[in-house]
Write a structure and sequence with these properties.
The structure holds two protein chains of two kinds. Chain A is α/β, with parallel strands linked by helices. Chain A contains five helices and eight strands, in the order βαββββαβαβαβα. By secondary structure, chain B is an alpha+beta fold. In chain B, the strands form two sheets. Chain B has a six-stranded antiparallel β-sheet. Chain B has a two-stranded antiparallel sheet with strand order 7-8. In chain B, 35% of the residues lie in helices and 14% in strands. Classes of the chains: A alpha/beta, B alpha+beta.
Amino acid sequence: MRLVVTGPVGSGKSTLIRSISEIDVVDTDRTATDSTAELKNKTTVAFDFGRLTFGSDMVLHIYGTPGQERFDFIWDMLIRKAHAYILLVSANRPNEFRYARRVATHMNQLAQIPMIVGLTHTDCPGAWSVENIAIALGYVDDATRPPIVSLNPNHASSVAQALITLVQHYMECSVNDKVSA
Amino acid sequence: MAFVGYLSKFSLPELFQFIQEGYKSGLLIIRTLNADKTVTDKTSCIWLQQGRIVAAAETNENKGLLTLITQRGWMSQDKASKVFQMSPGNMAMGLCLKSQGLLQAEQLTLLFRAQITSHVCPLFQLREGQFELTPQTSLPYAEMTGISIPATEATITGLRMLRDWSALQNKLPDLTSGLTKKIFAKSEVRLEYSESQVLEYATGKMSLRDIARTIELSNEKVAQIAFRLIVTNLVEECLITTAPHKEETSPFADLNSTNAFGQKRIPQTQPTPLTTKASSQLSNNNSHSLSGTSKLLEPALDSSPKAAVSKSFLHNLVGFLQSKAAS
């Protein structure tokens, strides 16, 4: 199974994968040279990869998209092969909500796969409420809104909890697809 | 509880879009800030009901509409106040005066337009401002004409009048982006010709730069029009794919090769994401030089087709993650 972690620069994608992966994460972080540098020194220029093995032959692959929009062709490759994805959004950076909304639109154009929203930095000053972030991201209808979870990408247990929500959402969507078919 | 933020982080067009989509009600106060972010005396009050603007004034003292009426010489402040005070408490002042034959419908329209153009439209050029949205149950009847517009209609009106876009420059969509029409978009806004032209090409397949070339408008103008359509909820900005998708047929990546990121070799049978060649090229380049073809990274992904995941796999995975979550 392949999961993708996406979202704006600094939302915690690389950290999330590092927290949960059983292998040393293969990352492509390089020194940021543009406006990204205002947020952090390094940014992912290609993608991150992490892995979880369970049972004797069961593997979960987790891919993180680059934070910089100019590498969007990599998102194409990642999302077309993904089974589900999580959109990470920093709750305290409203200036990135529009970008996150654009990412979700783009992802949805490429592949209609189950997704959840993961809110990071919810305990930081200036963090918006879940309800208001949902509206700002364009999820105005409770009935069609994807699951929204708060998580700390630094804590493996918190990341695991978010992944459970994603996998369970994937299972629900699979069941619904079968019923509607 | 009041919802507070800064226009430098969440611009007024975005805020109005948020207010409309969230059907927000209450009093929105915009305070102009100095360059050092200290609050000035200059404020604007905008009253909202279910995502619509019902009134706007300079202060929250219930005198804005009276002032507008008396400034135009339509009646004295005393007379208007007396008539309004005798009316039932849940009637907009404008409608109250109209019901008494003291104002005509056209005059109410002019008054409401004056509220919007004087107290809302100039806010779009604010570079630094603080907003505070306080949910409020009672309506400001003394400031209301009885007319209302969706918040985003004020946006499109204000942005059409905007001459200096510097405050919103970094909010404009990139020229490489495209637009897609929102399926359920309903708008009461009458579009200008150039806006309709851009909307026509909101198919998700054409970049703004190409749209500009096609309709023979400047890139800057098209980006501004696109922004107006986005924040009016008519379209969504989307990314135009730079490389066509191609089904991969190459075998799995070589997993046991040396990782050129300076990381240790991973001894396992499962695929790692990057081939030696791809990772070497990545490590030898900085971020700018990575803008090459997607071919470089294509072999990096597990090339097996996206198969359905079995129920037992999913149940085992949830169980495994639950153990991780508990630890």
